[in-house]
Write a structure and sequence with these properties.
Gamma-B Crystallin, domain 1, 8-stranded mixed beta sheet, mainly beta, 12% helix
């Protein structure tokens, strides 16, 4: 009854408009071109078949709410069989005829967690199943129990382990149809989208929903609150189509149109509250990975963060705007030290800390392309937050440059200082090079003012007492450096560690990190330099590039094993004393590997310094005539993956432990009817698990019949486990904190 009333009110409010269609979703497929998903305002009936078609003008106003894709009316996607061997491969038996290869030995995944998603549009009448097949530490294969697939989005999670392995997902039928497949946020198959053609005087009005299409031509699109349009074509805006952005929490995503092209070609077709777009006065042009742009309003009221005093989005509420720091008494509605849960809208990054100046226990949350609902803050932050800063997110790829180098198809750069600025194509990452970049309040204000900047780089080689930043103000002393580094937490930016010389990452930086942990000083990312100094480069100018690459791989994996945090490689090459050819071959081995590594977020090749007798660096992008070298051409043209591909990211850091359990859900429905992910209440003592900690299995004790059983890892991701005679096998799970949920009551346990 409630939804009917809301819908009736919606119809009444629209009668003042010209004849048009209102989205109902009654067709059940969220397809823009299915007439059963619309209702005619005047007649109250669904439009006639063929009246909404990708190949003809739509001469009606349209009012859209919900998440919609523009596909042909009867599009059911591809089948697993039809996409073999491009996506799927032949399986081991008639029972499991097809597989999807998730990971292989030595592919750079190092036992990482994998999230495979398949949006199923149709299943055979008998249904279909999948199972995860993976190698154990012994390299023997282990087959997990089969599980049923369902129509809609299926997420299959393979938990992290501490060893290299191979992983496959086996499917019971090739007749499974789908329209989207992705692994760890990177698409393997995307729907075949169609163009939307609007009549020249007609309006497509969007609020509380998203629309994905090939392109849009003609007419006018009005984007109200929570309206998101995603166009995939390289020619996205045709025949003078106009976009009016009326809300700070809406955007236009042009997936294959870079920011400079948007600025040069399309700003005249975009307005903000009926005012023509003027960059950067009233419009933002953010990167959308390597080739795209997010266009959104600049200056309109926007409150992407809603705070709640209680858990599970209950109690008093307060809203938080972007860019400004909220601390202590400035947190609205007396919510200082009173926050129990929150909702962060997509396209934004949030930093929270327990101290009003941003120091102390803290965490970063990134709602990249999905809202995040945190139903219960980590224990260390629960009712203990006194610092809040929300920033617009910027979607960068891995590839960057060390130095302000133009035209390398990179989406970020740094300059070893804090004086750079972001431009159309690139996010600038400021660096606090040494003591002078982090010792007073003006430094903090400078970092906070940087457009597009979401991270702050720590000191440059402070471990060197005789050179670089370590020689000033006793910064090579770890305790001194830690005390100064703490100031950078006041920026509210994501924290990148000091970048040490090659060997120092295992001693100096390790000591630095231990002191940081003791003093609740956060590091979100580990920065590295690598020049193969252990390979005696001065005496091996023509060393085997493969051997250099192997040492590089081992180094990265050793660092990740020590810290378990994302890595930025801010300086690297095969060494300035090595020949051009060695550096070229090393780059051609290294770059694809870095693009494949899940724990490498960003990297930046360092053009080697000139050395005698040639007095020219052996790995430069450009020659003396400013033409691209072979090295420069390879670096520029190699495609780069998203730095953070996840649709949301609950940022790990060096301070997180078993008390840092995040309890969250995702919601993407205008009426908040549909959601996925756990919603937890306080632990109920009637539910018990033992032993705790566990090694092989846990027994679940509950005084009532169990109707629903689920298990989640520390990131809130569903673990596919079954309750068998009151017990759960956890022997194959990596060590860490887990949550068992029985009929909406939950209990934590630790896997040793």
């Amino acid at each position: 009854m409630k939804r009917i009333i809301i819908f009736s009110l919606l119809l009444l409010s629209l009668k003042s408009f010209a004849q048009g269609y209102v989205w109902t979703g009654s067709g059940g497929d969220a397809n823009f071109f299915n007439e059963l998903n619309w209702i005619d305002i005047q007649s109250g009936q669904a439009p006639q078949t063929g009246s909404i078609d990708p190949n003809q003008s739509i001469d009606f106003d349209m009012f859209l709410s919900c998440d919609v894709k523009a596909k042909t009316e009867n599009f059911q996607g591809a089948s697993i069989a039809s996409e073999a061997p491009n996506i799927f491969s032949t399986g081991p038996s008639d029972a499991w005829p097809y597989i999807y290869a998730v990971a292989a030995f030595d592919d750079g995944n190092n036992g990482r967690q994998h999230d495979f998603q398949i949006n199923i549009t149709d299943l055979p009448t008998e249904g279909a199943s999948y199972r995860i097949v993976r190698t154990l530490s012994s390299e023997n294969w282990y087959n997990q129990p089969a599980r049923s697939l369902s129509i809609g989005l299926n997420t299959i999670t393979v938990n992290r382990v501490d060893y290299d392995r191979a992983v496959k997902i086996q499917f019971s039928s090739g007749a499974i149809r789908f329209d989207e497949v992705s692994l760890n946020g990177i698409p393997s198959y995307s729907p075949s989208l169609e163009p939307i053609v609007m009549g020249p005087s007609n309006i497509l009005h969007i609020s509380n929903g998203s629309l994905k299409a090939l392109n849009i031509s003609g007419g006018r699109l009005i984007l109200e609150d929570n309206a998101y349009v995603h166009l995939t074509d390289s020619a996205p805006l045709l025949n003078g189509v106009e976009f009016d952005i009326n809300a700070g929490l809406s955007w236009l995503c042009l997936e294959n149109t870079p920011p400079a092209q948007v600025y040069d070609s399309f700003l005249s077709q975009i307005s903000v509250s009926d005012v023509v777009a003027q960059y950067p006065t009233n419009i933002r042009l953010d990167n959308y990975y390597e080739h795209g742009t997010i266009v959104r309003a600049n200056g309109l009221d926007a409150s992407p963060l809603t705070l709640y005093s209680g858990e599970n989005l209950s109690g008093s509420e307060a809203t938080i705007g972007i860019n400004d720091v909220y601390s202590g008494a400035s947190i609205p509605n007396q919510m200082n030290n009173s926050i129990g849960s929150f909702v962060l809208r997509k396209g934004h990054m949030l930093t929270v800390a327990v101290n009003p100046d941003g120091t102390g226990k803290s965490q970063v949350f990134i709602a990249s392309e999905s809202d995040i609902e945190i139903h219960s803050l980590p224990i260390s932050l629960q009712s203990n937050v006194s610092f809040i800063r929300v920033l617009p997110w910027n979607w960068v790829s891995k590839k960057g440059t060390a130095g302000d180098v133009l035209d390398m198809n990179n989406t970020w750069f740094y300059r070893w200082n804090n004086q750079g600025i972001s431009d159309f194509q690139r996010e600038y990452a400021p660096m606090a090079w040494g003591y002078g970049g982090a010792n007073d309040a003006n430094d903090i204000l400078l970092y906070q003012s940087k457009y597009k900047s979401t991270h702050i780089l720590g000191f440059n080689e402070p471990d060197d007492c005789n050179g670089q930043s370590g020689q000033y103000n006793n910064m090579c002393d770890e305790a001194t450096a830690v005390a100064i580094y703490e100031n950078l937490m006041k920026t509210g930016l994501r924290m990148v560690s000091p970048a040490c010389r090659q060997g120092a990452v295992f001693n100096w930086l390790d000591n630095f990190n231990q002191l940081a942990i003791q003093n609740d000083i956060r590091m979100d990312v580990i920065a590295l330099h690598w020049y193969d100094w252990n390979g005696s480069p001065q005496s091996s100018p023509n060393a085997n590039p493969q051997n250099i690459f192997n040492r590089f791989k081992n180094y990265l994996n050793d660092v990740y094993s020590l810290y378990g945090l994302p890595i930025w490689i801010t300086e690297f090459n095969a060494n300035k004393y090595r020949s051009v050819e060695v550096n070229r071959q090393f780059m051609e081995l290294a770059i694809p590997y870095l693009e494949s590594l899940h724990f490498v977020e960003r990297y930046a090749w360092f053009e080697p310094n000139p050395v005698a007798p040639a007095n020219i660096g052996n790995g430069q992008y450009f020659d003396s005539d400013n033409n691209l070298t072979d090295i420069g051409a390879f670096y520029k043209n190699y495609p780069s993956n998203p730095a953070i591909p996840q649709v949301f990211y609950m940022g790990s850091n060096n301070l997180m432990d078993e008390t840092s359990l995040n309890q969250f859900s995702l919601s993407c429905n205008p009426d908040n009817v549909l959601s996925n992910g756990p919603t937890f209440s306080l632990e109920n003592k009637t539910l018990k698990v033992f032993p705790n900690p566990a090694t092989k299995s846990v027994k679940v004790i509950f005084p009532f019949p169990i109707r629903d059983f689920k298990m989640y890892n520390i990131s809130g991701l569903l673990i596919h486990k079954k309750l068998v005679q009151g017990s759960v096998d956890v022997s194959d799970l990596p060590a860490g904190m887990y949550m068992i949920v029985v009929d909406h009551q939950h209990c934590k346990f630790l896997k040793k």
